[in-house]
From TrEMBL:
Protein's name in the database: Ribosomal RNA-processing protein 7 C-terminal domain-containing protein
Gene3D superfamilies on file: 3.30.70.330, 6.10.250.1770
Coiled coil recorded as keyword: yes
Domain of life of the organism encoding this protein: Eukaryota
A Pfam family matched in the record: RRP7
Entry's Gene Ontology BP terms: ribosomal small subunit assembly; rRNA processing
CDD domains linked: RRP7_Rrp7A
One MF term in the entry's GO annotations: nucleic acid binding
Keywords linked to the UniProt accession: Coiled coil
Family, similarity comment: Belongs to the RRP7 family.
């Protein structure tokens, strides 16, 4: 089968979930190239892969592309990202599995591995799932996901204690620094900070409205009213018009009172 070339330098490679599977998947690969190289993703040794299936993780990709050469690192992202994801530690900081079609960066040990990966043909499809790849499918995957969701109480207790020790140490350090402000040390130096002693204003909706009203009042006081001749003339005309309207309304009220008035002495 001839290789397929696609725009933007991508090449299509046939892959299957298992050796017995009749469903064909396509992985699109090309050399990773960016303007500013990242140490974790060297351009001469990194393969950029898109359309990676949701069930395929870093371990499976490392095994799949190990036929081209030794793989040192694999990074999966939801979308193209030139950076390297941070390594998270602890129970609560575990990276969530990307259960979507994603992109991956496969880093080989040598440039020859990248060259062999780019030279792959479709005569022999890549196998994404086998016993050695570590990928689990079907009920085995869901059972493993359920087991990993259960927390180990001993590990949880250890992590909480470690966090509280670090938190208490940080609070003591901040308290010590607060006490040292304005006091001279052994050499006579005084710590000076730009921290204000005034407490900040709570940015609630009521306080924000009051501040805006004050700003409007200040702005209205700064404005010059009836400064020009035409402004004075317009203000007089508006005042006369208002008086006329009020006079007409008062006349209507008086006429209405006269019509409804009835003298009943008994």
């Amino acid at each position: 089968m001839a290789t397929n070339e696609f725009p933007q330098g991508f090449k299509a490679v046939v892959a299957k979930a298992t050796l017995q599977s009749s469903v064909i998947r396509w992985l699109f690969i090309k050399q990773h190239k960016v303007r500013e190289p990242v140490p974790g993703k060297p351009t001469d040794r990194t393969l950029f892969v898109i359309n990676v299936p949701p069930f395929c993780d870093e371990t499976a990709l490392a095994y799949t592309f190990s036929v081209c050469g030794e793989v040192t690192d694999v990074f999966c992202h939801a979308r193209p990202n030139p950076g390297v994801p941070q390594q998270s530690s602890g129970i609560f900081n575990k990276r969530r599995e990307l259960c979507i079609y994603k992109v991956a960066y496969v880093v080989f040990e040598s440039p020859e591995g990248l060259s062999r990966a780019l030279a792959l043909n479709n005569d022999m499809p890549l196998i994404l799932h086998c016993e050695q790849s570590g990928v689990k499918l079907g009920i085995d995957k869901w059972m493993d996901k359920y087991d990993s969701a259960l927390l180990n109480h001993n590990e949880l207790e250890t992590e909480i204690k470690t966090f509280m020790v670090e938190f208490d140490a940080e609070e003591k350090r901040k308290e010590h620094e607060a006490k040292m402000v304005g006091e001279a040390d052994e050499e006579g130096w005084i710590m000076v900070t730009n921290k204000s002693r005034k407490r900040g204003i709570a940015r609630t909706e009521v306080i924000r409205k009051k501040i805006l009203d004050k700003e409007k009042l200040k702005r209205s006081k700064r404005e010059l009213k009836n400064f020009y001749t035409f402004q004075i003339r317009e203000s007089k005309m508006k005042h006369l018009e208002t008086l006329r309207k009020k006079f007409q309304e008062d006349k209507k009220k008086i006429n209405a009172f006269k019509q409804t008035r009835k003298f009943k002495p008994f």
